[in-house]
Amino acid sequence: MKKFFLTLAATIISVLLVQAHTTANNDSTKQKSTVIIPDPGNAGLILPKGFGALKVTDAYGKPRHIAVTPEGYIYVKLARLFNGKGIYLLKDTNGDGRVDAATGLGDYIGTGIALKNGYLYASSDENVYRYKLNTQHEVITPNQPEEIVHGLLNRREHESKSITLDNDGNIYVNVGAYSNSCQVQDRVAGSPGMKPCPILDSAGGIWQFKADQPHQTYGSGVHYAKGLRNVVGLDWNTQTNSLFVMQHGRDQLHDNWPNLYTVQQSAELPAECMYEIHKGDNAGWPYIYYDQIQHKKILAPEYGGDGKKTAGEDAINPIIAFPGHLAPDGLLFYTGNMFPEKYKYGAFIAFHGSWNRAPLPQEGYYVVFVPFKNGKPTGEWEVFANGFAGKPPIISTRNAYRPCGLAQGPDGSLYVTDDNKGAIYRIIYTGK
Amino acid sequence: MLKKISFFISSFFLLWLIVAAIPPFQNTGIKVSIQRGEKVYNKVCLPCHMADGGGVPNMNPPLIQTSYILGDKTKLISIVLHGMTDRVAINGDYYSNNMAPHNDLTDQQIADVLTFARNSFGNKASAVMPVEVKSVRSKKQ
Known about the structure:
The complex is a heterodimer. Chain A is mainly beta.
């Protein structure tokens, strides 16, 4: 009974707060997070002191990447059709922070979604489309997407076409390599690497296209960067005016080369790398991988490597090298004002979580933060949001929430999607 | 002479029938196969299909109550021998990774690992015998 009155009191206070806030602040695009109440136990997330979290919904399929409009409307791209639709516009109409209205559009699945200059951009696993938005950032003609790019390779392995845009009218699209390490037989123990790797002319890299021209494909775009095995998380850094990507490093060093790598080495290696990308860069896949313990580019075993021989003199070095197999699926440079100063311009990375670290416990399933100033890391990475996979050790991926997409809300909230159970989290700073 | 031989054979057969009909014997047979199969699974299959047989969402399928794991043994054996890159719906969902052939495993190892998988993760199905693997292996794909 006492509990009931406490909750009642809390509800009344929060309602009063909301009212006080809305009357005091007429600028509708700028919402203070004080009116949004985190879920009890922060929806199961473990966060630094002063942060809170709420699950805004878990009812719309398997959201991959996410974009949030100045009104606080959420767009998500789904990995599977939900009620026949692959994109959802999700709204909170009563101001409690939770989704209470939804509209579906697009009959294709995919990963990429972005907002830029009055358009919504979305990718299938082959094409990129855009939709004109009204002043409320709602799609005007949901059934008439404008196809911007078509015919990108999808051979199902590493099929996501993640996207990001710069401020000069270009869109960057990842085309993942349909292979682990460009072996003659993919993932077969002892199978040698193909040389030159025939995949590299049309996949395993980033392509740049014009954001406003229809019907582009390989020939009409710029092959912007090569030798990137698979990039799911990428973001345009407005401080450096350059592209940053998170590469998924290769798998199965031990499974395929048991005489060269122990299971322990194979669980830790190779690094999951953050690269800053300039036009023409080559990150070295499949010929090399980055070893974060030796701090070296190592010749891949498929190409005669033994775990020690270095190679790839022409390949760029990573900005940050994370432990192996954590699977970075989202990257976001934080430019908001809600979080404390330390977070400004820093990088958030959503790690989907590993599967290839067995028999060691799985890792990842968290959102990491790295402080940055002027495009350079100024400190070590730290786990920012954890608890997505429950209590460690993690031996099952099936039952975990898996961080995938990241977006910044107009108030500076951080949104995180989970593409396994379908949760969308909003992380806010409360100072408490 | 012929009579003697046929008597010999039929008594042998009878004996075999009796032995095979005694449940404890069969059980220890399958039990031992499951134990050996678990070792093969942990080494070869677990990296993708995971410790709980639950797989990795969208990537590697689960081995829990799928039509493959419980179904036709010829097809099941051939998945292990020749790998799988079909991209078909597995219990209603699609998976993006490639499964490599595992024809370097012996008939016994494949029989054991499949017997293990068919009797773990909540599955219950008959054992797979090395002769069955042998016959699938000898067939042209």
